[in-house]
Write a structure and sequence with these properties.
about 280 residues, alpha/beta, seven-stranded mixed β-sheet, two-stranded antiparallel sheet, 11 helices, elongated
């Protein structure tokens, strides 16, 4: 160790201490920020704990920790978020992919054949997380993904290029509008579903994310209602519609699917045991 220079262990300990009162995952946040600033893995922090860091590197880490102390999500600070073992670029133009959304991908892979040219539509794709995860696991499938925000499609296209996934097409437009009269074997969506008066919206992290990707209207069900209402127009016979939704919205979404004529309605729990994905078959 060079005399007078802080080590990785010391910088990490300082970061954890500064974040303790902000985040219940202070250690994880600190490890991700320090490792990200070093462009290394978290395991590197342990194996090189005594390594001295330059003043410039310490300052870079201090700036990142300072942003986290202001409530900015770690993913936006680093510009990266892992989803389905894929490293995605994210920024304030798109919602940060969350682990519970992987349940939507799991369902898609369950109903899509491992081979064959299935057609999939992802509505409100954001960073492209769901579409790209499906494309990665089903290279023979053709995935189309839409988003009303051109800036979100820009992010999604960059992620597709970085991951070298050529079986996804991203289109700008509202809901089904960009796909015309096309039909699909599976439609998936992680739409906005947070009610406008939900107190969780006051948290610093959610305030940092695009509100339009979180809140569709007063009840939180408005986007889901629109998707369900027109899904039959775009599904092949036997096709599935699968929707992520809030933990208390499962019964309401199942009822919407039933009224729209879907059968074999399924509800899938996330790792916390909450209703997270509802699906119906045409």
């Amino acid at each position: 160790m060079s005399e007078g220079l802080a080590t990785i262990a010391e910088v990490l300990a300082s970061a954890i201490d500064q974040l303790q009162t902000l985040s219940p995952t202070a250690r994880l946040d600190a490890e991700l920020l320090v490792a990200g600033c070093l462009e290394q893995s978290r395991s590197f922090l342990v194996s090189h704990a005594g390594e001295a860091l330059s003043p410039q590197t310490c300052e870079r880490i201090a700036r990142a920790v300072g942003r986290r102390k202001q409530g900015e999500p770690v993913a936006y600070i680093l510009g990266l978020k892992e989803f389905w073992s894929l490293e995605l670029e994210v920024d304030r133009r798109v919602l940060i992919p969350r682990p519970e959304t992987e349940r939507l991908v799991e369902f898609a892979l369950e109903v899509l054949p491992s081979e064959g040219h299935s057609k999939v539509l992802d509505l409100g794709t954001g960073s492209g997380a769901v579409a790209l995860a499906i494309a990665h696991e089903r290279p023979a499938a053709r995935i189309m993904a839409t988003d009303i925000l051109p800036e979100a499609i820009t992010v999604a296209c960059r992620n597709a290029e970085r991951l070298e996934l050529g079986n996804v097409t991203f289109l700008v437009g509202d809901c089904y509008e960009p796909v015309g009269a096309m039909h699909f074997d599976l439609i998936v969506s992680n739409p906005p579903y947070v009610a406008a008066d939900d107190p969780a919206l006051a948290s610093p992290e959610l305030r940092a994310e695009p509100r339009g990707a979180l809140v569709p209207g007063p009840t939180g069900l408005e986007a889901i209602e629109r998707i369900v209402a027109r899904a039959r127009e775009h599904l092949r016979p036997g096709g599935w519609l699968a929707l992520e939704h809030g933990a208390r919205q499962g019964k309401a979404v199942a009822a919407l699917l039933s009224r729209a004529g879907f059968s074999t309605i399924r509800s899938l729990n996330d790792l916390a045991g909450h209703d997270r994905v509802s699906a119906g078959r045409l």
